[in-house]
Amino acid sequence: MRDGPDISAIAALIGDPGRANMLSALMDGRALTAGELAGVAGVSLPTASGHLSRMVGAGLLVVAAQGRHRYYRLAGEDVAAALESLMSLAEARGHRRVRTGPRDAAMREARSCYRHLAGAHAVRIYDSLRARGAVAVGVSGLEVSSEGRRFLDGLGVDLSGLAGRRVVCRECLDWSERRMHLAGPLGTALLDYVLASGWAERVGDSRVIRFRPRGLKALEAAFPLDKDASATV
Amino acid sequence: MRDGPDISAIAALIGDPGRANMLSALMDGRALTAGELAGVAGVSLPTASGHLSRMVGAGLLVVAAQGRHRYYRLAGEDVAAALESLMSLAEARGHRRVRTGPRDAAMREARSCYRHLAGAHAVRIYDSLRARGAVAVGVSGLEVSSEGRRFLDGLGVDLSGLAGRRVVCRECLDWSERRMHLAGPLGTALLDYVLASGWAERVGDSRVIRFRPRGLKALEAAFPLDKDASATV
DNA sequence: ACAACGGTTCGGAAGGGACCGAAGCGTCGT
DNA sequence: ACGACGCTTCGGTCCCTTCCGAACCGTTGT
Q1: A20 with B5: Cβ contact below 8 A
Q2: Which residue from B9, B127, B162 is facing A139, i.e. has the nearest CB?
Q3: Mean pLDDT in each 10-residue stretch from start to end of chain B (233 residues)?
Q4: Which residues belong to any copy of the HTH arsR-type domain (chains A, B) (predicted)?
Q5: What one-character DSSP code corresponds to residue A197?
Q6: Any A CB within 8 A of B109 CB
Q7: Which H helix or E strand runs over B73?
């Protein structure tokens, strides 16, 4: 009515259970076909197709036609961030999906959110990087310091994806931890590193990332938490 | 379907234009009566009453009965944060409400978001506090350092509201800046300070906060931006 | 060429939600 | 005590959305 962006159009799209399930399934950043998404939404293919075209039209999803398949994925990291923020709200209000199982607990530990890592371990990594001064808030958002770059490079993280990017890292609200974790190209690089180094592995087709005992030790050693970094007032 | 919180129920509530308008009107953190909210939503009183009771039931709003009035307000800061994150999405996708006027530009400069300050100036304050080391990420979230406490106290900010609070400050995504600004009790204290010190004033009944020229100078002096705090890689 | 396959478009049916008018209920003024 | 006021509840109408089956289109494989 008065001013500001129109929330309702986008919220209404997310508000349908079928579409919400599709969006949740796409939260790992990978692209799924219309048929697969119809499956997760629990609707017929024509219905799913209608939903998908509407979400593409609204800018929530993007399509890539490949042969006779059409791959849908989230339009960007900001979509994933908004979804996580809604999850955080729903979680706090006790709105939970019907079945909660062991998978749910594993998701809280570590999961992929778009292309980066989320969950308790992701928050730890972020906190450690902040405490170390590897990333800090600068004039153009969250920035990686030169010490941080050296540290990550020494660890073996592939930073080539960061070259020439306008925004190197961003923050994303973690629904299970209700804290910030690292997103953006640097977040992607860290998820790749965690998987490539064998610290953790993706569990099946889900968003769950399972850390191996060895990897957990390595993570705690590489990303220590300085308990006395600041006073709580 | 599978795991995680159920987004769709909450998103569906926000997805109705009338309800979205009500929520937007409540973004300044103040409580409005059912009649006033019916006005901003553009619906009759019975309709508004139905909407409001549903949102209370879902935990988005809370009511306070006062005489023959019933005051509705957002249930918490996390609701405001989720709404701002949706605004950020909608803004980026070009979903704008019909009329955009001078008020809109003023909103980008400075506005209240729940009980704290948002907009370009709010982001500046946050960045300055981060660069100065006044607030930093600790083990239990965003924390105020003892130097930060001294600095703010010396400035004249009333920190009495922070005593005994579990979380002293939080981050909130700014829809116009697409950056983080300061929320939580400290954010509230800073908004109070900015208004009490005469740096700025609330414009009518809107969320707009207008800075006086003198206040703007004072803000820039008190919260400098160190352009060379960190390298951009 | 032909059939199988993945996907979209079109049609109509069914369900749910938004909406308002009228009535009811508690509170405030006089 | 009485009416005015703010709000909620109830009942019924109406529209919008969701949904699927059938038909259609382009690609793949044989």
Answers
A1: no
A2: B127
A3: 79 97 93 95 96 97 92 93 93 78 84 92 92 81 89 95 82 82 92 96 90 96 71 38
A4: 1-94
A5: T
A6: no
A7: strand B69-74
